[in-house]
UniProtKB/TrEMBL annotation:
Protein name (database record): Superoxide dismutase
Organism: Phaffia rhodozyma (Yeast)
Protein family: Belongs to the iron/manganese superoxide dismutase family.
Cofactor dependency: Mn(2+)
Domain Manganese/iron superoxide dismutase C-terminal: start-end pairs: 92-191
Length: 198
């Protein structure tokens, strides 16, 4: 099995300014995400080199944490786009229709999403996901680096302090408000369309 690698960003480190600073993006991508990738590869290698069940069980938390960190961040980078790009605008289409249907309006959705995400204790993620059983969009949160596995991820927001503290300090609501200016709704639309067809 080939080792996992850090994915390239689909934009420059300064492309999300002024909403997310270049300094945050450099640290978040090249340091934090790279650490998850490095530690995931090390855990996979250690797991493959032992037949001791106790040792393999002991590695489960490292696999879950670092694997989740890699999955979540790989989604997160694609979840954003420069504010002045067409991708950062929610346009008429099936995703907007579903948001209006399931939450009343886009503004109501943002309020509910922000409230749920701000309720994360410590570190974690806020999500808009698609429930393939009920055919509805749902808001969810996950702790730490746990990936969203009960729903198909459409939009994910990192609420770990490393994602915002250098710029927004402890004012999480300002970070969440800023995020909606750089949310890649075109990518969210693609994910939604794929989830509906699945």
């Amino acid at each position: 099995m080939a080792p996992y690698t850090l994915p390239d960003l689909p934009y420059a480190y300064d492309a999300l300014e002024p909403y997310i600073s270049k300094e945050i993006m450099i640290l978040h991508h090249s340091k934090h995400h790279q650490t998850y990738v490095t530690n995931l590869n090390a855990a996979i290698q250690a797991f493959s080199q032992t037949n001791d069940i106790k040792a393999q069980i002991a590695l489960q938390s490292a696999l879950k944490f670092n694997g989740g960190g890699h999955i979540n961040h790989s989604l997160f980078w694609k979840n954003m786009a420069p504010a002045d790009s067409a991708d950062a605008k929610l346009t008429e289409g099936s995703l907007k229709t579903a948001i209006d249907k399931d939450f009343g309006s886009f503004e109501e959705f943002k309020k509910k999403f922000n409230t749920a995400t701000l309720g994360v204790q410590g570190s974690g993620w806020g999500w808009l996901g698609y429930n393939t059983a009920t055919k509805h969009l749902e808001i969810a949160t996950t702790a730490n680096q746990d990936p969203l596995i009960t729903l198909t991820p459409i939009i994910g927001l990192d609420i770990w302090e490393h994602a915002f503290y250098l710029q927004y300090k402890n004012v999480k609501p300002d970070y969440l408000a800023a995020f909606w200016n750089v949310c890649n709704f075109a990518e969210a639309q693609r994910r939604f369309d794929a989830a509906v067809k699945a």
